[in-house]
Amino acid sequence: MRLIALPLLALVLIGAKADDGVATAERLRDAALADNQAWELVESLTTEVGPRLAGTDKEAQARAWAVAKLKALGFQNVHVEPFDLPVWVRGDERASVVGEHAQPLAISALGRSGATPAAGIEAEIVHFASTEALEAAPAEAVRGKIAFVTHAMRRTQDGSSYGYFGSVRRSAPSIGASKGAVAVLIRSLGTDYHRNPHTGGTSWAEGQAPIPAAALSLPDSDQLERLLKLGKPVRVKLVMTPRFTGPGTSGNVIGEIVGREAPDEVVVIGGHLDSWDLGTGAIDDGAGVAITTAAAKVIMESKQRPRRTIRVVLWGAEEVGLVGGAAYAEAHARDKTIMAAESDFGAGRIWKFGYRVAETAKPLMTTIARVLSPLGITHDTTNSNRGGPDIGALAAIGVPTLAPEQDGSDYFDLHHTPDDTLDKIDPKALDQNVAAYAAMTWLVADSDVALGPVATGAR
Ligand SMILES: [Zn+2]
């Protein structure tokens, strides 16, 4: 017996050595495809908590939900890391064209918008086809008016159009205010032709008093342009009563699978827990919370502990200015963070695997890409992808980033609208995401390869 057993044992050991974690990663990938944990999580979050605006009681409820779920799934060291932030809440919001062509317009206040008096304001519209056109205009053309700013955003698979045209939401209100506009209306940063305006945060210059700033749905934006083409002044009445409710609390929720050999080396994956208030935050970002939590849970269920620690981070207050991402990076600046990955681009299938790592880590990236390829995922070898928004602050301090890229062709039909609801998620696509995250996370967490150093500094 012994003579036979020894060569067999040797074969098993050789097999394990040659594996390099690939066989395990493949098993995890395939197990994830047959697991519906992610769907259960996103269904539970969007149904039982619903909308969860940063700093509100609803976001606190989401944190309590996350702590309970992570504990129930068997994560270790589950805790909340709180931080403070100014809290803004929506009020009434109504707009209508007045005069000969009187009619209502569908609007939604932008995050951090100022308010009108309770009775509203009425002013003439002045149109600018881009943020740059508003910026170039003399103040006399804007003063006392409602600046109406549009753009040419189009549908793209990678969402790059949002980045390029995003200044209309982020900066145009502040530029309008600096030129004396009484309010700013923007064409929604969206690609759908429903009458759903797309909300989202805007920002003001230091010391600048917020003015009313709202997004029009695409059909309403087109309508306003047609009314202006009639050649007569167009006046709009606006009633908006959002307000800042003062300082509040948010927090990042954390759960871990502690590594067996190098517990102080941390592999960060996660999504953000807060959402805008119009929908139930299914694609933004209930899906990311569910995908990354479920991926870690698949690894936990395999009964194999990785060399390094896997830390799931569910960031708070992303939508209102990446507050949780910044708080996390500050609190964990001294951690040995091996890499970070965030899922925050909906629930579409992953089509490309990108990253930003040291040259010496490229063979590991090639191994990951090979394991992901049966999922229909291609390999972006440009080594330039800094990943999701909440890990931007980590990337800036030199943390390597991994970035499974989702197909976002329809993301901006739903993003920040009342249409961001559970029914928009395809369970099969969600499982494909979990499979990719489980395999990728395992291969990094069970490896002893350093993924850094990478260059520090903002994008
Ligand atoms: Zn998001």
Q: Can you walk through the features of this model?
A:
The chain has 459 residues and is an alpha/beta fold. The chain is built from 15 helices and 16 strands. 36% of the residues lie in helices and 24% in strands. It has an eight-stranded mixed β-sheet. The chain has a five-stranded mixed β-sheet with strand order 1-10-12-11-13, sandwiched between helices. A three-stranded mixed β-sheet has the order 15-14-16, with helices on one face. Helix 2 (22-33) runs parallel beside helix 12 and helix 10 (282-301) crosses helix 15. The longest helix has 20 residues, at 282-301. The site of zinc ion (ZN) has 5 residues, from helix 10.
Annotate the secondary structure layout.
Blueprint (H helix, E strand, L loop, with lengths): L1 H18 L2 H12 L3 H13 L7 H17 L2 E14 L3 E6 L4 E3 L1 E3 L11 E8 L2 H6 L9 E4 L10 H6 L1 H4 L1 H7 L4 E5 L25 E4 L1 H12 L5 E6 L2 E15 L4 E11 L9 H20 L6 E8 L7 H9 L4 E7 L7 E7 L5 H11 L5 E2 L12 H5 L4 E6 L4 H4 L12 H19 L14
Parallel strand pairs: 5-6, 6-7, 7-8, 11-12, 11-13, 14-15
Antiparallel strand pairs: 1-10, 2-3, 2-9, 4-8, 5-9, 10-12, 14-16
The chain binds zinc ion (ZN).
The site of zinc ion has 5 residues, from helix 10.
